[in-house]
Amino acid sequence: MFLIVVLQLLFTLAVTALVYFVPVIRDFLTRHPYISVGSATVYCVMTIVFIIFPKLLENRTVCICFLSAETTLLTLVVATVTCFYELKEISIALGVTVLVFSVLTVASFQIKYDLTRWFGFTIILSLIILSFGILVIVLPFKPLYLAFTILSTIVTCIYILVDVQLICGGKKKYQFSVDDYMLAASTLYCDFISLFIDMLRFFRF
Questions:
Q1: pLDDT tens digits for range 17-75
Q2: Most distant pair of Cα atoms in the chain: their distance
Q3: What is the pTM of this model?
Q4: Minimum mean pLDDT among 91-95, 112-116, 177-181: which range?
Q5: Which letter, b or e, does each residue of 80-118 get, where b requires 16 or more Cβ atoms within 10 Å of its Cβ?
Q6: 3-state secondary structure (DSSP) of residue 155
Q7: 3-state DSSP assignment of residue 94
Q8: Distance between CA atoms of residues 36 and 160, nearest Å
Q9: Distance between CA atoms of residues 87 and 150, nearest Å
């Protein structure tokens, strides 16, 4: 499962580096930021569909297609977003992301409390973040954007703690089954990308 996540991240890193260091591609994505917005929107819609109809992911072929689409769409988002940052900022954000993600992963294994009980709470948090994000788009004030960035980072950290426990299993209220390894990989990959984008946002202040 972790190998799948690593392969997803390596693909994202390779494509992002290609886009960033090839001026023609970078200029194109800079001039057309709606590609990132469109990719994120398609990913959100796709995710909502599978949340409503989770049994679809029981089909191995559908699950592989979802994993491939997720990786492609989120890679487009990351590649486009990084075009607006300096290399130093991207490197720092990536380093902090790896550090925080690693610490939270280890912490999740060590915490005895069953964090998967928060699963329903994380769905509510997702709706709050979505509503807050729409508000930031409508009212692009810097203090509001900072508050959104901080809240989004905290929520993402909670996601990581909960998702790792869903994966490691044990005597937990909720957990991924052995056959859900692709879905588990998809969850961790999304958490990492979300945290990385959150880290990048802090450079806007």
A1: 999 999 999 999 999 888 888 898 898 888 888 777 777 777 888 888 889 999 999 99
A2: 52
A3: 0.90
A4: 177-181
A5: bbbbebeeebbebbbebbeebbeebbeebeeeeeebbeb
A6: helix
A7: helix
A8: 23
A9: 22
